[in-house]
Specification:
Fumarate Reductase Cytochrome B subunit; about 65% helix; about 0% strand
Length: about 230
């Protein structure tokens, strides 16, 4: 007997953005600790993070049903009911997962945007360093470092929550983020996605990447004052 493939919940752009963002964040950390000669790649990975976070924020308003903020964001009462086990089945993000998504997006946006103005006080700086004073860049650099620690904590909580859902509650969240599908009995036919709107998503990514590239190209040369 063939196993039913399930019903589509997560569109292709959400899935691609999720895993690409994971790789880009890992690349940022790896190139940060690899030494100053890897700074160019650190910047490139940061650009990818910024574009993908920008895309996900836009997609939260114009994307498919379960990607939209209006669909999965819930108030304190719904979150408390979920924690008490009094809420019904959730097709997309559960209330706690929704809070995790928002927190990660906010901190990632802060991390990537501050990186544009930050410097390492040695020889490297973000592309927008020349638009501000060295003193302001140093303060922004402090925020950049602090937000990276917050991000690390959020990622740890996110991984722990997913592991608990997969191992303790037997919910295949990881495989669903690869295939986009959940078991048919968990997804009413009316809530199954009929398409991914991939063309729209690609247009958003191209527009954001182009805008960032133009801004970087217009920025003055970043020259760090060592003394």
């Amino acid at each position: 007997m063939m196993r039913e493939p399930g019903r589509l919940v997560w569109d292709l752009p959400v899935r691609v953005a999720h895993w690409t963002l994971l790789l880009a964040v890992a690349g940022c950390w790896a190139t940060h600790y690899a030494g100053v000669e890897w700074f160019a790649w650190h910047r490139r990975f940061g650009y990818v993070v910024l574009v993908l976070v920008g895309f996900r924020l836009v997609w939260g308003f114009v994307g498919t049903r379960h990607a939209r903020f209006a669909t999965f964001l819930r108030g304190p009462r719904a979150t408390l009911a979920y924690l008490r086990g009094r809420s019904g089945p959730v097709v997309g993000h559960n209330p706690l997962g929704a809070l995790s998504v928002i927190a990660l997006l906010v901190v990632l946006l802060l991390q990537a945007s501050t990186g544009l103005f930050a410097n390492d006080e040695i020889m490297n700086a973000g592309p927008f360093y020349g638009w501000i004073s060295p003193q302001l860049s140093n303060r922004i650099s402090g925020v950049h470092v602090a937000s990276s620690n917050v991000l690390l904590a959020l990622i740890g909580l996110h991984v722990a929550a997913v592991a608990w859902q997969v191992l303790a509650r037997r919910r295949p969240l990881v495989s669903a983020m690869f295939t986009g599908r959940k078991a048919a009995q968990l997804v009413p036919p009316t809530e199954e996605l009929r398409g991914s709107r991939t063309g729209r998503a690609l247009a958003i990514v191209v527009a954001l990447a182009t805008a960032l590239a133009l801004a970087i190209g217009a920025a003055p040369e970043a020259m760090i004052a060592l003394y």
